[in-house]
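From the pipeline queue, job 12 of 40. The input is one protein chain; the requested action is below.

Action: predict structure.
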Amino acid sequence: MTRRYWVIGGEYEGADFNALVPGTEKLVGPFENEGRARTEWTRLSCSPAATATTRYSIAAEAVR
């Protein structure tokens, strides 16, 4: 079984990271391997536009 990787997240309303600020949601991918997804995660997380309440995660999807 192979996997696809996605980078998901955005800017959250507060430091509890419970709710995204509407309009800031991002779903990027799919990526064929985790390394490429991690490169995109780094680009988004470390961009000059990122704030203390910006958070992204890498999600893996099993593909048959």
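Job complete. The chain has one domain: 2-63.
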